[in-house]
């Protein structure tokens, strides 16, 4: 009993986690820093240009491009949360992150991923109405509905984030404090924990993963079924072309 008490007490003394090195060779570290920095700037530029073009050109003021603009914004958020700390660790001698910093990183990553998954659900609804109910598309997908879907996806994404961060905050950490990964994320903390809140994590998994995936899969199945039922080969090819990029990303 005393040994168990001491084991669970040790988590309170842990103030930081040690991050796994990508390489012990400083030259390789510098090379990877330049590589990741270049990819990061290219990602930022691509998404910023996408946002600028969508907002500047009136031809893109339609629901599909509205959601694509949100996807570009989320890409910027996700990479801006993950990459800077990775770049810092590539150059610093001590590969470490504080417990508070780790929890903040988990929170921002979880929020970005949660909002993005619900954004795919909103995009699935947009394509579903466009293909399956094309005659009433302009009446259904109005601006207020798009804004409502946007607010809903951010609200659900942050709700999912709170569930995940509550699960992370309930973990009891033991002696080991080395994260076997080059980034501090929730799955990487499980091997360090003496206990796991399985109920909270299971609920997060069901709402975040299965719930969204099943609804997106249902929309995609209806879209594909409707396209295949079209008699005109030209119309069928046109509809497939319009949805091909989205169906590829979802797949």
TrEMBL record:
Organism of provenance: Sousa chinensis (Indo-pacific humpbacked dolphin)
Pfam families in alphabetical order: 7tm_4 (PF13853)
Membrane-spanning segments: 30-54, 66-87
Record-level Gene Ontology MF annotations: G protein-coupled receptor activity; olfactory receptor activity
Domain called G-protein coupled receptors family 1 profile: residue spans: 46-251
This protein's name: G-protein coupled receptors family 1 profile domain-containing protein
Keywords: Cell membrane, G-protein coupled receptor, Membrane, Receptor, Transducer, Transmembrane, Transmembrane helix
InterPro entries: GPCR_Rhodpsn_7TM, Olfact_rcpt
Subcellular locations according to the entry: Cell membrane
GO cellular component, one term: plasma membrane
Membrane topology listed for this record: Multi-pass membrane protein
Predominant location category: membrane
């Amino acid at each position: 009993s005393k040994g168990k008490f001491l084991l669970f007490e040790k988590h309170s003394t842990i103030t930081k986690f040690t991050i796994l090195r990508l390489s012990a060779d400083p030259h390789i570290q510098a090379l990877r820093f330049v590589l990741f920095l270049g990819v990061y700037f290219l990602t930022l530029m691509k998404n910023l240009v996408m946002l600028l073009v969508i907002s500047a050109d009136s031809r893109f003021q339609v629901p599909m491009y509205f959601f694509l603009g949100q996807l570009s914004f989320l890409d910027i958020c996700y990479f801006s949360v993950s990459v800077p700390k990775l770049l810092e660790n590539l150059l610093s001698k001590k590969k470490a992150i504080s417990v508070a910093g780790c929890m903040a990183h988990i929170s921002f990553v979880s929020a970005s991923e949660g909002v993005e998954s619900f954004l795919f659900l909103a995009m699935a609804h947009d394509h579903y109405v466009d293909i399956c109910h094309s005659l009433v598309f302009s009446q259904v997908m109005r601006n207020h509905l798009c804004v409502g879907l946007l607010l809903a996806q951010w609200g659900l994404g942050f709700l999912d984030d709170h569930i995940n961060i509550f699960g992370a905050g309930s973990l009891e950490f033991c002696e080991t404090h080395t994260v076997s990964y080059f980034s501090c994320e929730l799955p990487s903390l499980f091997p360090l924990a003496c206990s796991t809140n399985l109920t909270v994590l299971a609920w997060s998994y069901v709402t975040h993963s299965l719930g969204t995936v099943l609804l997106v899969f249902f929309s995609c199945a209806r879209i594909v079924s409707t396209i295949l039922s079209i008699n005109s080969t030209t119309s069928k090819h046109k509809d497939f072309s319009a949805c091909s990029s989205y169906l590829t990303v979802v797949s």
